[in-house]
Write a structure and sequence with these properties.
The protein has 478 residues and is of the alpha/beta class. It is built from 20 helices and 14 strands. Helix 3 (70-86) links the parallel strand 1 and strand 2 (90-95). The longest helix is centred in the first third of the chain and has 17 residues, at 70-86. The chain is globular, with a radius of gyration of 22 Å. The relative contact order is 0.17.
């Protein structure tokens, strides 16, 4: 979340509505059907091999989202119960990724416990954290287990950019995909109709995006053309669309965001925010300050918002019911160089200090196979990290969420099928420190804000700010 590619904790809260499982797997009371589903991981050229465990063990599972999200209230318990049909002696403790006492993040909590020698055995990770923790030697190298238990046909089915990112020098193949989510362009059909504008489609490019944004923009009536993009991972889409990068793709010890292509992407966003003033962020929209994402969509404050497939299900019940039929999805507009969409890189990894690595591996295999996909796609809306499951995901998520039945989900699956979804970029070292420098530059030269004192509304000239930031990042890499 997602953050990175995850949404904020407030936006992730509230997904507590329970749903039926899909694809022939009924509620857990129907034991026969559940057992049939659980045997789907048998031997074969395209089946993941299952092992056995006769030990009485307890496995701590650091999941995804907070304790109020439907991943933890609904999907995770169903998954554990299904897994326990095969492994009844493995007790799994679900640990939602809530902030700890005093506001300590779950990331800090997990790492502190691992260093102390008593942390979650299997953990979800995203954003900078998974790669950073792997580089610090905290995760098991899964390569030999994968070669033993996961057939080549399945390994080749994993989305390539995730597997490359989850394979770091010195750490090996430390992770497997939890899910992948691609960004697309959400839009409010009613606001388009009021202005007599046809819905966005795959012919839109940057010029059309700006032209239509200018026509849709109506702040006198509380409507902004689009939600403001913030975050290194979100802005990277514009840089990629222009043919640029944050990190030199040929040398990950060098910054590349001071090159003309990257500057073009940054300038496009700067102009939308500070020249045309077409954007607003939740909490800062007109006289309704304090709105979160869902309330902003409900109040129809944005004609368009760039967001991921992971918000689809939540958007059906956290947005006002009468507004849900009014939004749909289109591809992100193509840039001057190429089409591009941010891809999340949430994954699962096993802590190297775990005393139950074998059982954690069995559960991890469960979390990448069909039976868990049925649960996670239907209940949470997670887009699978396997290429062959993309159309199945569309069917599952629409069956479980009838208000999505008429939504265009093709932009999300196309980004995977057509290979234009790309994840966040990483420097060879000092990633956290580099991000601080880049975020400061974005605050000073790209973003606009009505309320935040950290955002300087273009106080610094873009080219000078970028040049200085790139030089400082390059110094970090020396």
């Amino acid at each position: 979340m997602a953050v990175g590619v995850h949404v904020t904790a407030a936006a992730r809260t509230g997904g507590v509505r329970r749903r039926r499982l899909l694809g022939g797997i009924p509620a857990l009371g129907a034991t026969g059907a559940v057992m049939a589903a659980c045997t789907s991981g048998g031997a074969g050229a395209d089946r993941i091999s299952q092992g056995k465990s006769e030990r009485e063990v307890t496995l701590r599972w650091s999941t995804w989202d907070n304790s109020q999200g439907n991943f933890n209230t609904d999907a995770a318990p169903k998954g554990v119960a299904l897994f326990n049909q095969k492994f009844p002696k493995t007790k799994i403790i679900i640990e939602p990724q809530d902030p700890g006492a005093g506001g300590v993040t779950w990331q800090t909590k997990n790492k502190t416990e691992w260093i102390a020698g008593n942390g979650p055995d299997l953990s979800g990770h995203c954003c900078t954290d998974g790669v950073q923790w792997a580089r610090e030697g905290l995760f098991v190298d899964l390569d030999s287990r994968m070669k033993r238990d996961i057939p080549a046909k399945v390994r080749e089915d994993f989305i390539e950019y995730l597997m490359k990112l989850f394979n770091q020098p010195g750490a090996g193949q430390f992770g497997l995909p939890m899910y992948t989510g691609a960004l697309a362009l959400y839009y409010n059909k009613t606001l388009f109709q009021r202005k007599g504008i046809a819905p966005p489609d795959d012919t839109w490019d940057w010029n059309k995006y700006r032209e239509m944004s200018l026509r849709l923009h109506d702040p006198a009536n509380g409507v902004w053309a689009r939600r403001q993009i913030r975050g290194i991972d979100r802005v990277v889409q514009k840089i990629h669309q222009a043919g640029g990068n944050w990190v030199d793709p040929k040398d990950d010890t060098k910054a590349a965001f001071d090159r003309p292509e990257a500057l073009a992407g940054l300038m496009y966003e700067r102009d939308a925010n500070l020249k045309d003033k077409l954007t607003a962020r939740e909490g800062e929209v007109g006289n309704l300050g304090g709105l979160d994402l869902w309330k902003g969509i409900s109040a129809q404050r944005w004609a368009m918002w760039e967001e991921g497939s992971w918000i689809l299900v939540r958007q059906t019940f956290l947005v006002e019911k009468d507004v849900v039929p009014q939004w749909d999805v289109a591809p992100l507009p193509k840039g001057p160089k190429q089409r591009d969409a941010l891809a999340t890189h949430d994954g699962w990894a096993i802590w190297k200090g775990s005393k139950v690595q074998d059982e954690a591996w069995e559960f991890m295999k469960f979390l990448i196979d069909d039976q868990w996909v049925e649960i996670a796609a239907g209940i949470v809306g997670h887009q699978p990290g396997r290429k062959s499951f993309q159309e199945k995901w569309v069917r599952l998520v629409k069956q479980a969420n009838p208000t999505l039945a008429d939504k265009n989900l093709k932009p999300f699956t196309d980004a995977i099928a057509q290979n234009y979804a790309r994840p966040k970029e990483f420097f060879k070292k000092n990633q956290t420190e580099a991000e601080v420098i880049i975020n400061t530059m974005l605050n000073e030269a790209v973003y606009s804000s009505e309320t935040s004192t950290t955002i300087k509304n273009g106080e610094k000239a873009l080219d000078a700010a970028v040049k200085d930031a790139a030089a400082r990042v390059n110094d970090l890499m020396k």
